[in-house]
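Tutorial sheet, problem 5. The two components below are modelled jointly, 556 residues in total.
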Amino acid sequence: MGVELNPPALDEIEISIFGPGYGESIAIHVCCGDWILIDSCIDQESKLPAPIAYFRKLGIDPEKAVRQVIATHWHDDHVRGIADLLDKCKTAEFVLSGALRTEEFFKVVMLGQKAYKSVSGPGTDEMSRVFEILKGRNKKKLASADKVLWKRTATAGSGEVPVEVWSLSPSDDSITRALAAIAFILPTELAPIRRVADLSPNHAAVVVWVKVGDQRILLGSDLEETNEGWTTILSSTTRPDGAASVFKIPHHGSKTAHHADVWTKMLHTVSFAALTPFVRGSVRLPTQGDVTRITALSQNAFATASPVSRRKRRDPAVEKTIREIVKSIHTVPLSTGQVRFRRITSTESSVWEVSLINGASKLSECLTG
Amino acid sequence: MNTATATKIDRDTNAENESERSPIRLLDVSVRTRLRDASPPSDGSPIISNDEIGSESPQIDIPAPAAVIAFPSTTHPSPQFRPLQKWEGFVLEVRGNSFTARLVDQSNPGTADEEVELSLEEISPDDLALVAPGAIFYWNIGYETTSSGQRKRSSVIRLRRLPAWSAKDIETAQTRASELYKALQWE
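Model answer (structure tokens):
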């Protein structure tokens, strides 16, 4: 059954999570026509950033509606198309992880412009274009632990709706670790000119907390527990209080991003959760173990796409050779699945409505293809 | 006219030393074939066979070659590769004895990219040191015909040898990064 694509009502919260299998982006309607966009991935059908493609279907003008564009970190799978996204959101403020505002990172980006370009450009290309766009804009902000990124009180229906957007990371410690990681990947003289490598693990990822009326939303980006990313957030005394009812599960549901206390201390007992899958080589996230763990914590867990491999059809001789020598091969998924949560803010009895669009599924079913 | 020219060449190649003639023998044969296969002239005059060609035949002056270069005659064709599938790839990650790479289909442009995990054993020893995240390579699968004429299925991975960063590259990037850092004011 098709999902009707109409804009949310002014007093309706929407969280749309897009994920094609390699890539992630989130669009949040925080009430009264104001949208916040987080990260970017490409909608393969339209070749546009996924939120922009979605806005076109809804008839929303991103130039007027988007208040902030947040880049949580600069991995390829989170920044593809973010320069186009920012360019189309001309009145939006841009938010960058505080860990990336360093001369070393800018140097990596500058060197990335000279590095080899293939059809799939690296994240440094996107960041380079973002910086060029930002030269002509006044609105830019750095995200760090427990910082208010955006705030307003809107009037919806008969009441006022307070809206707050916070960053819960990166912590000072994470920023220090990220700087060391950036120094490590910085090209040196006489080293071969290669594609610029990703930072790993995700020290600098920005976790976002959104409060709309009495509802709270936790968006975990790719923050991993490696080096106590989540422990630091949990132990903070300055983070906003309350429990979230919707959770974007961090880092594609991986075990390395799991902290049991997040589920008990930062989320409602009955919460809604969603993740985007990640497929790279033989790495598939979530794994069956991840699905089992998450579905035991939330019966309302969803995935934007399936991490199950798909193969191209080819000449039999080519297929035979591939079978003989590769350990694994799969296509990078083309369709951009979407999990959409909506809820009216002005009615206490309202509940979250979930729509699964373009191949999204319940998490428990995502591994069965 | 053509017949006359061919006749002259044929006679000039009729050297005493057989070993010196060998490179031109092919031309000799082709001339003979041409003569033998020729249709009777439309004016009814007879075809002149090679054996009948003598000193009385029409003469055209052709300068003697400065030197005759003798190429070794060979009957073995050089090895050939007929690609069935071509990719350009870049290495994403090296883990243990294998690596993961993103593949861009060069045989079917515009189709979905692929990701592959390959063993390092598939890489030539000379290229192994080049396998690192960001390294570019070309991968072809196809049929190779060897010099002995045998055909076999073949997979060929070649790492691209990229230039190195120069001191000037690094210095320029540092200058531009500093300028950008100062130009962008953040809240």
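Marking note: The domain at 12-368 of chain A is CATH 3.60.15 (Metallo-beta-lactamase; Chain A). Full credit if you identified this.
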